[in-house]
Amino acid sequence: MNNKCTERLFNGIVKENPTFVLMLGMCPTLAVTTSAVNGVGMGLSTTVVLLFSNMIISALRKIIPDRVRIPAYIVIVATLVTIVQLLLQAYVPSIYSALGIYIPLIVVNCIILGRAESYASKNGVMNSTFDGIGMGLGFTLALTCIGLVREILGAGAVFGRVIIPENYHIAIFVLAPGAFFVVAILTALQNKLKAPSASNGPESDGCSGNCASCGSLGNGTADKKPDSGKEE
Prior knowledge:
mainly alpha, 58% helix, two-stranded antiparallel ribbon
């Protein structure tokens, strides 16, 4: 059990990082990472929702009828997001103001619904809990790294503390285009280092990440899940 839980943590943080490997959740990734603090705030908020949604959905997987599973998942996730939103508004108003509309949009984050459908609905509570923690920490790490790069280059600061004189700031990195530049640079480095990503999939899996032109679509192999540890 401990090995399985450790595997789920490693899988979410490194092997199937939702941002750098699977390229999921790009909307909040590009929108809120103007600073490292914002990245941490959005990442941890999503982690909490992932943790409890995986736990609850896994516990109820044999009770929820298959034909209404998606609406049921959305109701569970929306309830958790509302709780997180109210807690942020009450105790961390600065983060709540900075993240804005992207907090309630966690409800439709493809990372959360994807893990609910592909893992939590098919596995036990313990494994699903660690899967949620791993994916959430991987998302947090990715957002923090992107926010840190943008903050250093665009504002010359690290977690709000200015370390580079204003004359050397590249303002475009804290604007919308800067998010695309940073993600493109990090993805290019990832491909250069031959690390697994959506555009540079591991050859052993036979997947390059280019789903649109994948020849396996429609022949039954497209439904193959990367997680083989399914529990009955």
